[in-house]
Specification:
Distance between the termini: 77 Å
Radius of gyration: 25 Å
Number of domains: 3
CATH superfamily of the largest domain: Nitrogenase molybdenum iron protein domain
CATH topology of the largest domain: Rossmann fold
Strand content: 15-25%
Order of helices and strands: EHHHHHEEEHEHEHEHEEHEHHEHEEHEHH
CATH class of the largest domain: Alpha Beta
Structural class: alpha/beta
Shape: globular
Helix content: 40-55%
Number of strands: 14
């Protein structure tokens, strides 16, 4: 992990720090394109072929049976069952609050406009499990989908080495009422949900995080008119920590490691105004990183992570907004005061007692968030992600009479005379 000092960097060097590790690997797009097109053309056969190639599994049944799901429920320990219960309640409470009430607006006498939400009919949820199962992602995607009222919800997750979906994922899905689960992972799962196969149904929109291959596959199918929409590009995990001299170096180090342990392509960044903190974190980081069983992944991730020493607090915040992190931790004195100045971030954790872990699992906010700088224009998954908004208008005769001069004027200016006739023919009867 390197330290960069703002006052020694050129403009070009500063900009280069915003590149994410996964974007530098040029082979991803070609591999994913081949997978997606093969699944589009050959369906289940291609899904199984890539399952053998990438997941090293020969399992023929793509859909998880009811018996497997029921068996998974028996493996939950009382402690984890309690944890699931608390997380489900908090996530459900937060997402329920996002429902909007319908308001009818009278824009002028006799003209009433309003907007109503409708759930998406068919949605596909992708739950990663390549290096570690993520039952928390089941909750983050499944709960808002259920609350929205989507009529068909399917879930894909990669098999373990034994050929079965991780039982923790199955049990979490069962707890929130999802039972259509497929034993498929990676880019082939995204393609299968986007195009449909003999077994896996085509969906309207795909949700979920994943590695660079999953993210590239989501991007590919979303650009294909025959594919499917996606929630966002939620690629390898990333965190940026804003800290000053009041931050505990050990806490900062663990925050960095907690994101680095997700994926070798993950990135962890510390931005601080205090050079002493930067050097102390750099000193303790190697020892602390070695404490964990996923230390090899952590080491790979930290190789392309860095510390940025800013000239001022304002400069530190500017760097954070330019980087547009998936997760942003503000671990400094008077952290709340910085909240209004944060304009680009997926999810923000305010104060020394707010680790990303809380949002990952059970505080209530969603952990499927924009990565790779897309937080400049994208939001994380929410209830709205599973809804469409349809506008309505009701116009009386007197309302149309009042509006007619404006409408016919626009029609004339734009050279669309039939538009004008659609108005005047109604009023001449």
């Amino acid at each position: 992990m390197k330290i960069y000092f703002e006052n020694t960097l050129t403009k070009e060097e500063r900009i280069s720090l915003f590149w994410r590790p996964g974007t530098l690997k040029s082979d991803t797009g070609h591999i994913v394109q081949d997978v997606c097109l093969a699944v589009k053309q050959r369906g289940d056969d291609a899904v199984r072929e890539y399952g053998r190639k990438f997941d090293k599994t020969e399992k023929q049944a793509l859909r998880v049976s009811k018996e497997e799901i029921e068996a998974a429920n028996t493996l939950l320990t009382p402690i984890f069952l309690d944890a699931l219960t608390v997380a489900i309640e908090n996530i459900r409470t937060f997402h329920k609050s996002q429902f909007n009430t319908t308001q009818r607006i009278t824009t002028m006498e006799g003209v009433v406009c309003w907007r109503e939400s409708r759930p998406m009919e068919r949605v596909g949820l992708y739950v990663p499990a390549g290096s570690a199962p993520l039952p928390s992602t089941v909750l983050m995607l499944g709960i808002p989908a259920m609350l929205a009222g989507c009529s068909r919800i399917i879930l894909c997750s990669p098999p373990k080495t034994n050929g079965f979906v991780d039982p923790l994922i199955l049990a979490a899905a069962a707890m929130i009422g999802i039972d259509e689960i497929y034993n498929v992972g990676g880019a082939q799962a995204i393609a299968a949900m986007a195009y449909g196969t003999e077994t896996i149904p085509k969906v309207d929109k795909i949700f979920g995080p994943g590695n660079r291959y999953v993210t590239a596959a989501k991007q590919f199918v979303s650009n294909d008119p025959e594919g499917a929409a996606i929630d966002l590009l939620a690629g390898p995990s990333e965190v940026l920590i804003l800290s000053d001299e009041t931050a505990d170096p050990d806490v900062v180090a663990y925050d960095l490691i907690s994101q680095a342990e997700h994926d070798a392509d993950a990135q962890a960044v510390l931005v601080t105004t205090d050079e002493r903190l930067a050097k102390e974190v750099l000193r303790v980081l190697p020892q602390k990183a070695s404490e964990f069983p996923r230390n090899k992944i952590v080491e790979s991730s930290l190789e392309h992570s860095f510390i940025f020493v800013a000239n001022s607090l304002e400069s530190a915040v500017r760097f954070s907004n330019d980087y547009a992190p998936e997760h942003l931790i503000i671990n400094m004195q008077n952290a709340e005061a910085l909240v209004p100045s944060i304009i680009n971030a997926g999810s923000v954790f305010v104060g020394p007692f707010a680790p990303v872990t809380a949002g990952d699992y059970a505080s209530g906010t969603n952990h499927t968030l924009p990565t790779n700088g897309t937080a400049r224009w994208a939001s994380g998954v929410s209830l709205d992600s599973f809804l469409k908004n349809i506008t309505f208008q009701s116009i009386t005769k007197s309302g149309l009479e009042s509006l007619a001069p404006t409408l016919t004027s626009f029609a004339s200016i734009e050279g669309l005379q039939a538009h004008a006739c659609a108005v005047t023919s109604r009023l001449s009867k």
